[in-house]
Amino acid sequence: MKHEITLIKGDGIGPEVADAVLRILDCAGLEVDWDVQIAGETAVQQGLHPLPEATLDSIRRTKVALKGPVTTPIGKGFTSVNVGLRKALNLYANLRPARSLEGIESRYQDVDLVVVRENTESLYSGLEHEVVPGVITSLKVITEVASTRVARFAFEYAVAHGRKRVTAVHKANIMKLSDGLFLSCFQKVAEEYPDIQADDRIIDALCMHLVKDPKQFDVLLLENLYGDIVSDLTAGLVGGLGIVAGANIGIGLSVFEAVHGSAPDIAGQNVANPTALLQSAVLMLRHIGENEMAGRVESAMIDAIAKRDRTTRDIGGDGSTSAFADAVCERLG
Ligand code: NAI
Q1: How far apart are CA 307 and CA 289, in angstroms?
Q2: 201, CA 20 to 30 Å: which among 12, 50, 133, 162?
């Protein structure tokens, strides 16, 4: 079956890792029409809005997108295209699995965690205000609707993927109303899933426990900012940002992208690890029903990494972005 998928290569290392992944998907035999769209600086340079309506319309039409990272200017310039995209399309759940892979040295083996991050509100509401010069407020918005739907997503994910436990992470001892609402919505939803163990942790203690013994956790549910930070931490536990996948899921629409950013420090050098976007593409293949192909691509990737065949330098290899794509393609025949 031929698919139509929106493609946003992004900027920085985005085009390099996207090209590597497109090659691998082609080697695997994916029949696809890519609807190529742009966002961020690439769009601004063409005189367009950083998040062009054509890009949003394309995803609304195709229902699925593969996206590379897009740079957000720090402390000035346009607001985050990544946050804007998630809000505009109501991609309310951000899924970030972190699993150890053989051949990648890290502090732990056998880590298998899933971070579910609320994707639309909290301190990412973008509601910042200068009260008087030198005094700024930034609004943290937590709603019952968003907290309940992302909690339900986490439990449904746990059921569908044979997970045993969901842990809500919060700071409700200090932010009693906002994080308190997030926690109480979680507890209410948990009652509908008696077969899944449900508990909670305070964010600071969770970080300590994750670093000491990550294997004790299963699915972690966090509001937006905590999820952003903790998912980078869990990426670090399994070898870094170059290998972990991400998916933004909404109602009938999904955008698959790596957890990492545009990595300007290594952009244009053909050294970025394409594994993170490739793992995101594997999630995408399963999402569009290409389960057999997803399995083949994943096995080829796992085997290449386990044999350290042309792996990139962030995971201790000396291969390049394109050479690693060759290594995976050769395994796909
Ligand atoms: P980053 O994730 O781009 O880089 C952090 C570190 O990890 C850097 O040392 C980088 O070289 C390394 N790294 C990241 N991806 C890698 C890969 N595939 N292979 C090897 N090494 C890799 O985070 P940073 O520097 O904080 O952000 C850079 C830009 O990316 C910012 O403008 C930020 O807003 C944007 N960003 C975009 C995201 C998205 O589009 N979803 C997500 C996160 C950040």
Answers
A1: 29
A2: 162
For residue range 69-100, what is the model confidence (pLDDT) as tens digits? 999 988 888 888 998 999 899 999 999 999 99
| Structure tokens belonging to residue 330 | 């050769």
pLDDT of residue 230: 97
Q: Whose CA is nearest to atom 5 of ligand 1?
A: 263
**Region for 182 from its dihedrals, namely left if φ exceeds 0, alpha if ψ lies in -120 to 50, beta otherwise:** alpha
Query: Which of 80, 257, 262 to probe ligand 1 with, by most ligand atoms within 8 A of CB?
Result: 262
Residue 125 pLDDT greater than 90, yes or no: no
Q: Between the CA of residue 12 and those of 41, 47, 69, what are the distances in Å?
A: 10, 19, 8
Q: From CA 289, how far away is CA 196, in angstroms rounded?
A: 26
Give the mean pLDDT of 165-175: 98
Residue among 217, 237, 208, 128 at smallest CA distance from 168: 217
